[in-house]
From TrEMBL:
Protein name listed in UniProt: Glutamate--tRNA ligase
Underlying gene: gltX
Limits of the Aminoacyl-tRNA synthetase class I anticodon-binding domain: 505-549
EC number: 6.1.1.17
Chain residues that bind ATP: 300
Top-tier EC class: ligase
Subunit structure: Monomer.
Organism in which the protein naturally occurs: candidate division WS6 bacterium GW2011_GWC1_33_20
Domain of life: Bacteria
Length: 555
């Protein structure tokens, strides 16, 4: 057991370069001047180069809550795990979230710079701050250096396992917890590597009742682990950085993933040791996915749709993704949207207590439906603009077609866009190539064509008869009457009742005739309205296609 004086002296030995006190630091981070209800929240990712769709989920919630309250949303970068860090990791996060319209009021603005008065906003630049608080804890006997090697820790673990005891560095197993000053001094003089650990005063048998902003009332056991606060390289662990950063940055409450829920007692003990006011937590459950009959976490390794880059590359409409995420967050968003079809999502009163407590299902097919619905409501010009933006990054060929044949493209997008039967076949901008391929001769040539089983001579007659009367100035009714004439002339029925009562009398129905026209002109059995398709393609292309079909398929 060390005396008060010994601990004070030890803190000087360990942190001889640290001259500031916790009070000096706290003075630099004064209370914010907030009006009633204004929230300050932060999003605190690590720059690992991978942005999970769950990050969009969490940060969108923080963004909306702060925007709605006229508060501040902060981007803090947690880069204390140097192994997982990638180059440009910060700008990747910023750009990824920016894509979804999530902006920050404070914090990092690129890989190097930040804005705001509560920085630095990147943990590697806050080393001095963490050391000031670590020094203070050591001097008060609330933290201490531990010189255990990996091997020693492993053998403690093994012994605990053999005895069937809880594993970890706690109580009597915490070898350096009660080391004398001389023992510590000798280790330091021998230049042994050390970490700084919490001197836990908790008791695992005591229960803490706490109210989580999302999960509601929860009961946890007190912490009794002497967890690492500063690693041997001097960098803080998440457990130590979180109470310090969130206190100094004057955060209203902590919104974070529920993988941290089990560490909450540890965090609460560190808050207490530091003399800080306890912050409230809202633990967000992970996004889940159905795998066969069971639910599991959306996984970075197994599910391509876990990555934000998936949505960006595939060109999911941002608004569609945001709407779906809000549906997942608060299921009443759906009804709100029906009642308020034109409102900005900022008008939606997102509520933490309405979150799914166990883990919400992220269902890509539902997302697709929402995106389809969203795109179906856009004007052709809006589709053009968004598709252009996507193609400028991801599809050079489509990009140049959009640029060079703008009017043609807009008229393609305008097919079945107005009126009662609006097309709902575009989910995302990467669907555009397959949507427009029938309209561009080079793409049409490369396309796999479909076919029907019908006598070639008969097909030829149908196409020739149609060509003879085809006139692009016809109204839809005139056009259809001509298709019917072709049908009758070639022995097809134009009256379904009549056809059903005596099918043998006919070669087929008028729909079969239209199918031949469709196949000749588009190469596909299913397309948007054929009349409109022909109108957009124009006479020359329609005639060329029919000729081409006769000369290649029907020979
Ligand atoms: N860097 C931590 C993470 O990415 C942050 C957790 C938190 O928001 O406090 O999980």
């Amino acid at each position: 057991m060390r005396t008060i004086e010994e601990n004070k002296y030890l803190s000087e030995l360990l942190f001889s370069d640290i001259k500031e006190s916790p009070q000096d630091i706290l003075k630099k981070y004064p209370e914010r001047n907030l009006k009633e209800g204004e929230l300050v929240l932060r999003f605190a990712p690590s720059p690992t180069g991978f942005i999970h769709i769950g990050n969009v989920y969490t940060s969108l919630v923080g963004y909306l809550l702060t925007k709605r309250s006229n508060g501040k949303f902060i981007l803090r970068i947690e880069d204390t795990d140097k192994v997982r860090e990638v180059e440009n990791g910060i700008s990747q996060i910023i750009n990824g979230l920016e894509y979804f319209g999530i902006h920050f009021d404070e914090g990092m603005i690129n890989d190097k710079e930040s804005k705001g008065d509560y920085g630095p906003y990147i943990q590697s630049e806050r080393m001095n701050i963490y050391k000031v608080f670590a020094k203070d804890l050591v001097s008060k006997g609330l933290a201490y250096p531990c010189f255990c090697t990996e091997d020693e820790l492993e053998s403690i673990r093994k012994e605990q396992t053999d005895l069937g005891t809880r594993t970890g560095y706690w109580g009597k197993w915490a070898k350096w917890r009660e080391a004398t000053f001389d023992e510590v001094k000798r280790a330091l003089d021998s230049n042994w590597t050390f970490v700084i650990r919490l001197y836990s005063n908790g008791n695992i048998d005591n229960k803490i009742n706490s109210k989580d902003l999302i999960k509601g009332g929860i009961t946890l056991s007190e912490n009794d682990m002497d967890s690492v606060l500063l690693k041997s390289d001097g960098l803080p662990t998440y457990h130590f950085a979180h109470p310090i950063d969130d206190t100094l940055m004057r955060i209203s409450f902590v919104l974070r993933g529920d993988e941290w829920l089990s560490s909450q007692p540890l965090h609460m003990e560190i808050f207490k040791a530091l003399g800080f006011k306890q912050l409230e937590y809202g633990h967000i459950s992970p996004l889940m996915k159905m795998d066969g009959d069971s639910k599991r976490k959306l996984s970075k390794r197994k599910d391509p749709e876990a990555a934000v880059s998936y949505y960006i590359e595939k060109g999911y409409p941002v608004q569609g993704v945001k709407e779906y995420i809000l549906n997942v967050a608060n299921s009443n968003f759906y009804d709100w949207r029906i009642q308020n079809p034109d409102e900005d999502i900022l008008e939606f009163n997102i509520r933490l207590e309405k979150f799914n407590k166990a883990g919400a299902l992220f269902d890509i097919s539902k997302l697709n439906d929402i995106c389809k619905e969203y795109i179906s409501k856009l004007k052709a010009q809006e589709i053009y603009d968004m598709a252009l933006e996507w193609a400028s990054k991801f599809n050079e060929d489509i990009h140049s077609k959009l640029i060079n044949q703008k009017d043609y493209c807009i008229s393609i997008f305008n097919i079945e866009r107005e009126g009662s039967k609006v097309r709902k076949d575009i989910v995302k901008w990467s669907d555009i190539p397959s949507q427009v391929e029938i309209f561009f001769d080079d793409m049409f040539m490369d396309m796999d064509k479909e076919s029907v089983d019908m006598d070639k001579g008969l097909q030829k007659n149908i196409l020739n008869d149609f060509s003879d009367t085809y006139y692009p100035g016809d109204s839809v009714q005139e056009w259809f009457n001509k298709v019917k004439d072709v049908a009758i002339k070639n022995g097809f029925s134009v009256d379904s009742k009549e056809y059903e009562s005596n099918p043998k009398k006919f070669k087929g129905k008028v729909g079969d005739v239209a199918m031949i026209l469709r196949l000749a002109v588009t190469g596909k059995k299913q397309t948007p309205d054929l009349y409109q398709v022909m109108q957009v393609m124009g006479e020359e292309r329609v005639r060329e296609r029919i000729k081409g079909y006769i000369n290649t398929v029907l020979v």
